[in-house]
């Protein structure tokens, strides 16, 4: 299994909306590096769900249920989407401030490539985020 982080502005698509929907397609990615990450996602991979701009915190976990396909919001075949389903909220959100303060997380895409909307997460980073949410 691989791990990822997906970002959404809560006013556009929040964790609460993700939970209400249960499953959705993750669309609107218009960055080539983020697109490559979408294309790297496999069924069963887990993604940390991050509220960007407002909150700036990881709030939940989703699972990839359908691998990359043509983004249904555009006719431009350069862009992809994946389907994800809500797994569970974190026991408590983990803030960007906490992540930046933890030296074991200083190489996360979230810290190093701040504008990247879909980023890779290493297993030790994923495990650390989960542990932080449980403390």
Would you write up a description of this structure?
35% of the residues are buried. The protein starts with a strand and ends with a helix. By secondary structure, it is of the alpha+beta class. It has helices at 15-21, 32-40, 96-101, 109-112, 123-133, and strands at residues 3-8, 23-26, 46-51, 57-70, 80-95, 118-121. It has a single domain (3-133), classed as ph1033 like domains (ph1033 like fold). The model has no long low-confidence stretch (mean pLDDT 97). Strand 3 (46-51) and strand 4 form a beta hairpin. It has 5 helices and 6 strands, in the order E-H-E-H-E-E-E-H-H-E-H. It has a 6-stranded mixed beta sheet with strand order 2-5-4-3-1-6.
Through-space gap between termini = 25 Å
Structural class: alpha+beta
- Sheet having the most strands: 6 strands, mixed
Averaging pLDDT over every residue, what do you get? 97
User: What is the β-strand count?
Assistant: 6
Which outline best applies?
A: globular
CATH topology: ph1033 like fold
Order of secondary-structure elements: EHEHEEEHHEH
How many helices? 5
* Overall domain count: 1
Q: Strand percentage, roughly? A: 35-45%
Which CATH class? Alpha Beta
What is the CATH architecture term? Roll
Break the fold down into its secondary structure elements and pairings:
Blueprint: E1 3-8, H1 15-21, E2 23-26, H2 32-40, E3 46-51, E4 57-70, E5 80-95, H3 96-101, H4 109-112, E6 118-121, H5 123-133
Parallel strand pairs: 1-3
Antiparallel strand pairs: 1-6, 2-5, 3-4, 4-5
């Amino acid at each position: 299994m691989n791990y990822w982080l997906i970002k959404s502005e809560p006013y556009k698509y929040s964790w609460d909306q993700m939970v209400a929907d249960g499953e959705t397609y993750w669309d609107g990615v218009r960055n080539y590096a983020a697109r490559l990450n979408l294309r790297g996602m496999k069924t069963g991979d887990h993604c940390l769900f991050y509220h960007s701009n407002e909150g700036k915190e990881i709030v939940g976990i989703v699972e990839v249920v359908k691998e990359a396909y043509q983004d249904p919001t555009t006719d431009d075949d350069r862009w992809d989407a994946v389907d994800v389903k809500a797994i569970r909220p974190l026991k408590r959100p983990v803030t960007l401030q906490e992540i930046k303060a933890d030296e074991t997380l200083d190489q996360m895409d979230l810290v190093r490539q701040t504008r990247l909307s879909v980023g890779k997460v290493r297993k030790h980073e994923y495990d650390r985020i989960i542990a932080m949410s449980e403390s």
